[in-house]
Amino acid sequence: MAQLTLAPQPIAVITILITVCATIPYPVMALDLSRLYGHINSKRNGDLCHPYEPFKCPGEPHCISIQYLCDGAPDCSDGYDEDSRLCTAAKRPPVEETGSFLKSLLASHGPNYLEKLFGNKARDALQPLGGVDKVAIALSESQTIEDFGAALHLLRGDLEHLRSVFMAVENGDLGMLKSLGIKDSELGDVKFFLEKLVNTGFLD
Ligand SMILES: [Ca+2]
C-alpha cells in the first residue's frame, strides 16, 4: 500500500480556512467546519482582503494578517480569529487527507474495519457515527479526545478503548495495534495517523 502523507500543512490549512472564511456570508454564529468545507468552491466576489492581510473578520470591515491568526490574542472584535476549533483544525492534517486515509482502510478491509479503533458504532463505514467525512472533521476540529467523543456521541466504553489505543501509540506500544488486527503493512500509516493527533494535543 502506498504511504499516505499525513504531515500537517499549517500554511495550506490556514490558506484554505482564510479562503473559506473570507467568502462565507456573515453571520457565522458558530464555526461549523463541516459546512464551511462544503463552501470552499463557492467563492463569492467582493469582501476580499489585501493579500498581506488575507483573513477577514466576519461581519467587520477590517482584515488581519496570517500571523495574527491563532496567536493567542483576539484581533477580530468577537475573537473569531482565536476560535478554538479553527485553531485546532489549523494544527491538524487536512481533513481531506484524514478522510482519504480512513476511506482507504475501509476500501482495503471492509466497512467494519474501523471498529478496531472507534468501537461498535464505527461499523458500516462509520454510518452510525455520521459517516467518514463527519468523523474526519471531528478529528480535525476536536481539541481533545473528550471533545471528539462528545461531538460523535461515542459510548464511554468506546471512548476509553480509543484512548487506550492513543496512549499505546504515545508510548510506542505497537503491540496494541497488532493485537487489534492492524496488519504489519499498515502499522506505520496507522501509527503516523494517530501520532499526528497525539502531537497536537488530542490526549491533553
Ligand atoms: Ca489573533
UniProtKB/TrEMBL annotation:
Matches recorded under SMART domains: LDLa
Domain of life: Eukaryota
Keywords for this protein: Disulfide bond
Pfam families: Ldl_recept_a
Record keyword Disulfide bond present: yes
Name of the protein this chain belongs to: IDL containing
Species assigned in the record: Carabus violaceus (Violet ground beetle)
CDD domains: LDLa (cd00112)
